[in-house]
Design goal:
The protein is mainly α. Helix content is about 75%, strand content about 0%. Helix 4 packs antiparallel against helix 9, helix 7 packs across helix 9 and helix 9 runs antiparallel to helix 12.
């Protein structure tokens, strides 16, 4: 009994330490965003600002076009998530339901493709976008985001499709439902949490992406939020720490809000009771 209790306490302690480790950068970012310049330059920094201020937020909006950059990021992320899900869903269904050698090879290639570094892809992507005349354009950036998110989206949705019992579709077919009716009325609702989770992944990936946006977008009016955040760093590498922290804090809020809103839809019990044994 003592060993079991000690092991349980140890697991909870390890979990708490891990959560604190993950939360530390965000908590420090929030603290820095509300500190006045005197506290930011203090030799011994504090966790909680002694004299909290909103001056960093006002200065951030005055120095850089954060709203325009956030709108560019939002449009690119939403479009990339929508296109990735629309393209990946039927591909995942075919891959999961028809387990041929070609389907297994395609799935393996999808997993392997995630190991390719950004630098290896940027040159061919740049040449393709140049031929399509999509350099320095938000649609071109969306196309790149879709290409980057599609393999993992396909892999995620394939797992969700395989979790849907084929017996449900067979039972609907016996009752006289056609293929389209089965997909819309039976398989579709059960895949909804997986589709939402995949769209969330594509959205967050595109929202936080920096490298492709930096290389492909040159016009200041078209730059996304992660690229604009680098403008708070001077030519000599000295960061305007207060406004940078304030802007970075605002940039993290959409991802947190999206997770908070849909987290109930992507957790547990989706297929509970769907098939009776």
């Amino acid at each position: 009994m003592r060993t079991s209790t000690g092991a349980r306490v140890g697991r909870y302690a390890a979990l708490l330490a891990y959560l604190l480790f993950l939360a530390f950068p965000f908590l420090w970012l929030v603290s820095t965003a509300f500190k006045p310049p005197a506290e930011l330059a203090a030799l011994h920094p504090t966790w909680i600002p002694r004299d909290p201020t909103l001056a960093n937020f006002r200065q951030a909006f005055d120095e850089q076009p954060l709203l325009r950059a956030a709108l560019n990021s939002l449009l690119a992320a939403l479009a990339a998530a929508l296109v990735a899900v629309v393209v990946a869903t039927p591909m995942a269904y075919v891959t999961a339901r028809h387990r041929t050698a070609l389907a297994r090879a395609a799935t393996g290639w999808v997993v392997v493709s995630q190991a390719f570094p950004f630098v290896l892809l940027i040159i061919p992507l740049f040449l393709v976008l140049k031929n399509l005349r999509l350099i320095d354009s938000v649609p071109g950036l969306v196309l790149v985001y879709v290409v980057w998110a599609l393999p993992f989206a396909l892999w995620m949705l394939t797992g969700y499709v395989r979790a849907v019992p084929a017996e449900l579709e067979e039972a609907a077919a016996v009752d006289g439902a056609g293929r389209l009716r089965i997909l819309v009325s039976v398989t579709g609702p059960l895949l909804a949490p997986g589709i939402v989770a995949t769209a969330l992944f594509a959205f967050v990936t595109a929202w936080n992406e920096f490298f492709f946006a930096l290389v492909l977008l040159k016009t200041p009016e078209k730059q996304t939020l992660p690229v604009v955040l680098t403008h708070f760093i001077g030519a000599e590498g000295v960061a305007d720490l207060g406004p940078l922290a304030a802007a970075a804090f605002l940039a993290t809020l959409p991802s947190l809000v999206v997770f908070a809103v849909i987290q109930r839809r992507i957790t547990g019990g989706v297929l509970a009771g769907a098939v009776k044994s």
